[in-house]
Amino acid sequence: MIVLSVTAFDPGGLAAQSKAVSGRAVGEMNPSFPVLNVTGPHKGKLVCYVCESKGAPVVFAFFPQTGDETASLVKKLNELAQKQDLRVVAVIMAGQDSQPWLEKFAEENGITI
How far is CA 5 from the centre of its chain? Predict the structure, then answer.
């Protein structure tokens, strides 16, 4: 869950003096990081999708663990990737202990991301 909090109190007019920025600037490269692929054509290999994308749009979705909520969101991301010309990488941060769950889930649900 993401919570956004905004306050109306602004001592000294700081909001007028600075502009909030979200994410990287257009054209700025993301730092690379390798992921162990559990599904897809690179199954069993370490791949850097930042390096491989070469500027194409990529969605990185990070999930703390496996489970029903993760499964539901990964299914929706898989559908989005199939409808759009978009690469989606779902990263399960629980580590390699989550690999059996992810392999079974992907096979049973036709997950291609």
Answer: 23
Task: Write the single-letter amino acid at 16.
Answer: A
CB contact burial 56-75 (16+ within 10 A = b; e otherwise): eeeeeeebeebeeebbeebe
pLDDT score for 34: 83
Contact criterion met (CB below 8 Å) for 112 and 82: yes
pTM across the whole model: 0.65
> pLDDT tens, 7-26?
333 444 444 455 666 667 77
- Residue 86 φ then ψ, to 5°: -145, 135
Q: Which two tokens stand for residue 12?
A: 């000294």
Q: For residue 19, what pLDDT is reported?
A: 65
CA–CA distance, 91 with 95 (Å, rounded to integer): 9
